[in-house]
Design a protein that fits this description.
binds zinc ion, about 180 residues, alpha+beta
Length: about 180
């Protein structure tokens, strides 16, 4: 990916960054270039965005205040097709469909469900909006504590999966 995208990825959860790189590689094979247009966004930056179109000039761009977006925890990125050196925000661009498909294939949650097509997040067992537990973790140990919680659950899921496989093999053997 280009240097600007890589700089943004360097501030997000490493597991998310790795998947976005894989996504970009896959899309590149299909002649689609993407740029990471947003990664980690501080709470103050989020509050400033929220004010836009409400208490400040401009149009409304977000419904999330500081702490309410996964960007504030480095667990979300926004991407866009990158044509001739500029991000193409026109959602009629044919590349968007593939971008969403490939991102989803990489295990990322796409923002299309809430009409935020450029947005992808990786949040483990946590829902689309950060919970109170996430805010508490952040207060205790900043983004690293949040990343640990997201990844911890992935490990827990793997262990549960292995147990289920073991139980089915065990049942199968006993059924013989
Ligand atoms: Zn986003």
């Amino acid at each position: 990916m280009d240097a600007t995208s890589e700089e943004r990825l360097s501030h997000v959860m490493p597991e998310l960054a790795a998947r976005v790189r894989k996504m970009a590689d896959q899309l590149a094979e299909e002649s689609i270039t993407i740029r990471v247009t947003q990664g980690l966004r501080t709470w103050a930056e989020q509050d400033a965005l929220y004010a836009q179109g409400r208490t400040e000039a401009g149009r409304v761009v977000t419904n999330a205040k500081g702490g309410e977006s996964w960007h504030n925890y480095g667990a979300a990125v926004d991407v866009a097709p990158f044509d001739e050196g500029i991000p193409d925000w026109n959602l009629s661009h044919p590349a968007w469909k593939r971008i969403v498909e490939v991102g989803t294939l990489m295990g990322l949650v796409s923002g299309t469900a809430w009409k935020d097509t450029p947005h992808f997040e990786l949040t483990g067992r946590f829902p689309a909006t950060p919970t109170h537990e996430i805010k508490q973790l952040h207060a205790q140990g900043e983004v690293q504590a949040v990343w640990n919680a997201i990844n911890d659950v992935r490990l827990a899921g793997l262990i549960l999966g292995l147990k289920l496989i073991y139980i089915s093999i065990d049942n199968y053997i006993h059924a013989l």
